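sanity check this record:

:::
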Amino acid sequence: MRFLVIGAGSVGQRHCRNLASLGQEVLVWDVDPARLREIGMVDRVRPIATFEEGLAAGLDGALVCTPPASHLALGRRALSAGAHLFVEKPISHTREDVEAMLQLAKQSGRRVMVGYNLRFLDSLCRVKELLGEKRIGKPLSVRAEFGAYLPDWRPGRDYRENYAVRSELGGGILLDAIHELDYLGWLFGEVIEVFCVDEHVSDLAGDTEDLVEMTLRFESGLLAQLHLDYFQRPYRRNLQVIGDGGDILWDYPSHTVTVLAAGAQAHPEDLSARDGDANQMYLSEMEHFIECVQYGRSPLVDGWEALRSLRVVEAAKTSASGRTWVKP
């Protein structure tokens, strides 16, 4: 099959390599000639001169890997050209016009998948499995955290050139770390109310928030605390689920999942055999997208599911500006 990757930044190049390794024909377009030269050295990856050339190439699928503010415009053009669509998270920087694009996909019989790669991470899937088995009884409280020093995210590139520091492009830790909102919804269901504080507190450049403290209330009544930042060192991504029969601890940097129960000794489950290869979840994600395109399967995270997380982001921003609880 033939895929067009739109945007040859770090994640776009990763998807190019993974699609090529899975035996697919890959076209790639970017406004930066240097990026195209770099990725063009990979077998089965062919840079093209214009976006229009890619759209006219008889595509099976297109991947939008550009700053969030451009996702919808590019996605609509790819759908109109007959391609199934993969959009890197978030689906857009604002929910305005998202539903219109999803309706276009529905009318044209095309799938829309959104890139929430943590759904394909073995250790997080293990957490979902343990919750399904009710290993800690009824969840009562949740704490989730993501923090990483933004200048370290893409070695060799000045972070001030990253869309993350520009609000008009869809930057900011709320949208960058929307993975957390996605997996919390995946594990615990609908968020019905949020209270959020977001600020720029560090010396990092830009006009976007670099710190978020949020409380989420789920339809089940469960409360979750979420911390996000752009300045924490070292990198941290973890989850604690407190139940009436024990705790589940997930720690991504160590690739472990631990069940704590009264009177039992804790033995962290080491899942680094697959988790330790950071590319594996992206590769599994691309395998899933290929299956959706080839066999007409529904994506694990479709556009409507992605819109749910975006609504929570917008509710969080409204809450932060008004210092009040807001319903998504």
